[in-house]
Write a structure and sequence with these properties.
This protein is an alpha+beta fold. It is built from nine helices and 21 strands. It is 26% helix and 27% strand. The strands form five sheets. Strands 5-6-4-14-15-16-13-19 form an eight-stranded mixed beta sheet, sandwiched between helices. It has a six-stranded mixed beta sheet with strand order 8-2-1-12-21-20, covered by helices on one side. The chain starts with a strand and ends in a 33-residue tail after the last helix. Bound molecules: flavin-adenine dinucleotide. Flavin-adenine dinucleotide (FAD) binds next to helix 1, strand 2, helix 2, strand 13 and strand 19.
Length: 389
């Protein structure tokens, strides 16, 4: 029997949307080339933040925070969510000005965020922060979660609702009859389908280029380092205004540090059937150095592993959540630009309504693909990643 919808990709976007659609009784089939959370959703820092979001994403982040608070209970699976805030630290006078302005602006948009200019106030929230830090913004309702656990939480809840996950199977082509989707062709079979969501991260353009459409993505790489478990030292996520370093302590004591992003040639290496992106040793070194600068207590810890993570950047650093123009039944969710983990509950909600043709609680016009049409031939400014964490 044909599914009501095929979802390509079992990252957090695909799994959250499978859950939402299966709650409404739809028959969902998710096709994943590797394993769930094999790419960005496993490589991520796992920050769940509203602070520092671009304005069109802020309502999605606020909506998501309400969901995150109850997600473990709703999905009956511990997502590792911790709501202990986000401290964005100023390391020099230029960053002091930027953080003060950011806090003022976001407060005027209704976010619960304060500007702290006294190191004692900052260290009262996070004692391990360096005494050289000059100021910070603090958003107490931000937090972080365990990325792999969250993806599995959504996946298992969707499965309990009847969704089917095909792991280790790759979608190769979308077939159409006239201007309508008719089938999804995988490495193993042909699935008759009239609806398909492309939640396949940086893989989206491989599946839509035959329709003469592209999501304007440039690919970047971030470096992530994980230490061995340490005593409890840090509750909030620590970041800096240019995103050059973000770090958090996981619930089991491991620290996870993420660098800023660099241009990347897009080469994913497959090893033992799984995808890897390798960072340069220089970047591992500079990420550690930036981590030590804001949190000197990291110096004594052992490094457990490090990895690279690919970032699918759009020119305005906002995602595309849209129908594919001209091809009925195909939907796109990509280009999260390094901050699609925390907003996944809102993205799942929007995609549910987009696919069913109903009205979501959240505006999503800013995420239409057509916003790039005018600019597609422009060289334009370089895309920039905004903050992670
Ligand atoms: C280092 C790093 C740090 C980050 N930090 C944060 C953060 O702190 N907070 C935050 O909110 N966000 C953060 N992000 C961004 C966030 O992790 C991503 O935006 C989010 O995980 C994207 O999820 P996704 O499901 O859309 O894509 P992905 O997780 O990439 O999932 C896509 C899936 O599709 C599969 N796939 C691809 N092509 C095919 C195909 N043809 N057939 C079948 N399957 C296919 C892939 O294997 C993959 O599993 C970070 C990202 C990175 C890399």
């Amino acid at each position: 029997m044909s599914p009501d919808i095929v979802i390509v990709g079992a990252g957090i976007t695909g799994c959250a949307t499978a859950y939402e659609l299966s709650q409404a009784g739809l028959k969902v089939e998710v096709i994943e080339k590797y394993v769930p959370a094999a790419m960005a959703s496993g490589w991520t820092l796992g920050g769940v933040r509203q602070s520092g979001r671009l304005q069109p994403e802020l309502p999605l982040a606020k909506y998501s925070i309400e969901q995150w608070s109850q997600l473990s209970r709703t999905l009956d699976y511990d997502t590792g969510y911790v709501q202990e805030g986000n401290l964005r630290l100023a390391r020099n006078e230029k960053e002091v000005k930027a953080i003060e302005a950011l806090a003022r602006k976001q407060k005027s948009h209704g976010l619960d965020i304060v500007y702290l200019s006294d190191i004692k106030e900052i260290q009262a929230i996070a004692p391990c922060v360096s005494s050289d830090i000059l100021a910070a913004s603090f958003c107490p309702t931000d937090g972080h979660a365990d990325p792999v656990a969250t993806v599995n939480a959504y996946k298992e809840a969707a499965q309990r609702n009847g969704s089917v996950f095909r792991i280790g199977e790759s979608v190769e082509t979308l077939s159409t009859e006239g201007n309508k989707l008719s089938a999804v062709i995988t490495s193993r079979r042909t699935i008759r389908a009239s609806r398909c969501l492309l939640a396949c991260g940086m893989g989206v353009n491989q599946l839509i280029h035959r329709f003469g459409i592209q999501v304007p993505l440039s690919l970047a790489i971030a470096t992530v380092i994980q230490t061995t478990p340490a005593a409890a030292l840090l509750k909030p996520v620590l970041g800096v205004v240019d995103g050059a370093i973000t770090l958090r302590q996981e619930r089991d004591g491991k620290f996870r540090l993420s660098s800023g992003v660099q241009k990347w040639n897009g080469a994913v290496i497959e090893k033992d059937g799984q995808p890897y992106v390798f960072p340069s040793s220089e970047k591992v070194y500079s990420t550690l150095k930036a981590g030590f600068e804001i949190c000197p207590s990291l110096k004594g810890l052992q490094m457990r592993r490090f990895w690279g993570g690919s970032i699918d950047l759009t020119p305005d650093a906002l995602p595309v959540l849209d129908k594919l123009p001209g091809i009925e039944g195909v939907y796109v969710a990509s280009g999260f630009s390094g901050h699609g983990f925390g907003i996944a509950p809102a993205v799942g909600h929007i995609l549910y309504h987009l696919i069913l043709g109903t009205i979501p609680k959240l505006a999503f016009q800013s995420f239409a693909l057509e916003r790039f049409e005018k600019n597609q031939t422009d060289t334009g400014p370089e895309p920039v990643a905004t903050l992670q964490g």
